[in-house]
C-alpha cells in the first residue's frame, strides 16, 4: 500500500475516530497550543456512553475548550497541569493534576509500572511526501507517548491508538517532532486557529530592575533558559538583534533548542521551517545532565513564595494548586552541573491582593504558607533575585542565607522577618 492509499484508509470523521478510545484508558491531548479540538470535542460528546476515561492535558490556554463541562463525577475525568483557563476547576477539585518533573514525563507516561497513556491525540501538519506529520509547536512528552501507543497497538493491544487532526495552520518545524503515517490509526482533517497568548503589556519598574539584576549573571557566550522551557516571542527579539546567536554553545551550537512553543502568531510564523529552531523531547531538553553540557548555563524561573531558609514554592498558594512543577527543578539541577552555571529564582518582593486593596504581601515569608508545595528544595536553590538585588543561597549556612534573603525583601517587611528569624533561632 502506498502512502496516499494508507492516508485514505485512515481518513475519517472525528466522531468515528474517537470510537477507538476504549473504556478505562488514559488519553493524552497535548501541551498548550497543539490540542486537537475537533477530536477532544468529539470525545467529550461521548461522555454519557463511556466509562472511566481520563483526559490528560498541560497548559490549558484554549478558552473555547469543551472539557470545562466535565467534573469529578463525569464518566470522563480531566487531569490538567499548569492550569490557566481551567484553574478554577483544579482549585475546586473538579479536575485533578499530576505533580511530575517535566523531564520524567515520557518515562512515567509510557512504562507499565507507572501510568502509560493509551491514546495520543495530536494536532499536526499535513503529511509530507515521505509520510511524516510534524507536531509543529512541540515535541515535549507527546512524541514518546505517540510512539509508545503505536508500538503497543502493533503488538495487539487495542487499548492503544494514535489519532491525528490534520491542521493547515500548524507550522512545520525542525527537530525530533515527527510521526509517520504507519504509526497513525485515524486521520481527521480539520483546520483550527492556533491559540495565542495575550499581550501582557509593559514591564513594571520592579520587573525591569529584576531583569537588570538577572542580566548581570549573563556573560558573553552564556546559554540561557527562561520560564518553562518553551519558545516564546521574546526569543524573536533576541534573535533578530543578534543577542542570541548560538555560536558559542559547546553543545548543540547554531540553533535554539526548545521542547514546546507558546506565543503569538508572529512566533509561529518565525518557527515555520526555521533551521535555527529545533524541538526535542522533554526527557532530552530538560535532562539535567544534558543541560549541564553547555557551559555558563543561566536558568531563570519565577516563584510564588520563598521562605527564610531558601525553600521555593512555585506551584501552590497554600494548599490550593496554582500551577505545575514543570521543569524548574530540572534546570536548577542542570545549571549546577554546568561549568560556570547559575540558577535564579526571580520574583518581585511583594504581591498585591487581587482587588489592589489592603496591605501588600511579602513574597519572602518566615515559612511557606501551610499546605504550600516545595518546588525547589533549599539545598538546590542557588540565587533569589528581587528588585532589591540578588541573594545567594546555594552552599550557605542557614544563618547566612537567612541574612541574604532578608536583605532582598521589601524594606517594610525586613524588621518583621528579622524578628521571626531570631524567634526561630535561625540567626
Fold and architecture overview:
The longest helix has 13 residues, at 142-154. It contains 14 helices and 25 strands. The mean pLDDT is 94. 26% of the residues lie in helices and 21% in strands. The chain has helices spanning 3-10, 14-17, 37-45, 87-92, 105-108, 142-154, 205-215, 233-240, 265-271, 282-285, 288-291, 328-337, 398-407, 411-423; strands at 25-31, 53-58, 76-81, 119-124, 132-134, 161-166, 174-175, 178-180, 186-189, 223-226, 230-231, 256-258, 260-261, 277-279, 297-302, 305-307, 312-313, 316-317, 320-321, 342-346, 350-351, 361-362, 364-365, 383-386, 389-392. It folds into 2 domains: 3-189, Glutaconate Coenzyme A-transferase, CATH 3.40.1080.10; 205-229 and 286-423, Glutaconate Coenzyme A-transferase. A 6-stranded parallel beta sheet has the order 3-2-1-4-6-9. It has a 5-stranded mixed beta sheet with strand order 10-15-20-24-25, with helices on both faces. It is α/β, with parallel strands linked by helices and 427 residues long. The protein is globular.
CATH topology heading of the largest domain: Glutaconate Coenzyme A-transferase
Q: What can be said about the biggest beta sheet?
A: 6 strands, parallel
Strand order of the largest sheet: 3-2-1-4-6-9
Number of domains: 2
Distance between the termini: 75 Å
- Multimeric state: single chain
Identify low-pLDDT runs.
Answer: none
Number of strands: 25
CATH superfamily of the largest domain: Glutaconate Coenzyme A-transferase
User: Strand-residue fraction?
Assistant: 15-25%
Helix content: 25-40%
The averaged pLDDT comes out at 94
Structural class: alpha/beta
Total helix count?
Answer: 14
Radius of gyration: 23 Å
Outline type? globular
Q: In the CATH hierarchy, what is the class of the largest domain? A: Alpha Beta
CATH architectural designation of the largest domain: 3-Layer(aba) Sandwich
